[in-house]
Automatic annotation (TrEMBL):
Species per Swiss-Prot/TrEMBL record: Roseibium salinum
Pfam families the record matches: CAP
Domain of life the protein comes from: Bacteria
Domain SCP: 51-166
PANTHER family assigned: SCP DOMAIN-CONTAINING PROTEIN
Name of the protein: CAP domain-containing protein
PROSITE patterns: PROKAR_LIPOPROTEIN (PS51257)
Length: 181
């Protein structure tokens, strides 16, 4: 037995049901489509970095320092740490934090310092930023350090996008610093 209009009512109910399901499914899509944070370590021209810091130190009557790949590795871990947080505000950026990270890396040293930077598009901009900051500039001109490492990590989301870390140190291999009074 055929009921007039039943087929049409079924089609309407099916269409409404499918539309409701589609709308419900679409409401899930925006959160699925949110951009995930991706951290990417970026190459840094270490020759340029060493030339910049040594020219600056020479202008200020200080001896040259040399590049140290072990400090690059320490710097890279910190750059990833701050990039992951999208912030430089972390306990790891302290004298104690740096000392712990160097100890963990097996980097015995007599002196160490660290400069962080965020948002700088290139090495020259980061370096100028450090020169313009009293504490960072003091690290660049630290007479006790003999080695330097640097790293950069980019973040695809967030406020800063570019994170820089320069680690300066004097390893035991370079001998105790001489205090000049």
């Amino acid at each position: 037995m055929r009921v007039p209009g039943l087929a049409n009512k079924f089609k309407v109910a099916l269409t409404v049901g499918l539309a409701a399901w589609t709308i419900a499914a679409c409401s899930v899509l925006p959160s699925d489509m949110e951009e995930r944070t991706i951290l990417t370590d970026q190459p840094v021209d270490r020759g340029q970095m060493v030339a910049m810091i040594n020219a600056y130190r020479q202008q200020n009557g200080l001896p040259e320092i040399r590049h140290d790949p072990e400090l690059d590795a320490v710097s890279q871990k910190m750059a990833r740490h701050i990039a992951g947080r999208d912030s430089m505000d972390t306990w790891a950026h302290s004298a104690f934090g740096l000392s712990q990270r160097l100890d963990k890396a097996g980097y015995a040293n007599y002196a160490a310092a660290e400069n962080l930077g965020a948002g700088y598009a290139d090495l020259s901009a980061a370096f100028r930023g450090w020169q313009g900051s009293e504490g960072h500039n003091r690290n660049l001109l630290n007479s006790y350090v003999t080695r330097v490492g640097i790293a950069r990590t980019n973040r695809n989301t967030g406020k800063w996008r570019n994170f820089w870390v320069m680690t300066l140190a004097r390893p035991h291999a370079d001998g105790r610093p001489v205090v000049v009074r």
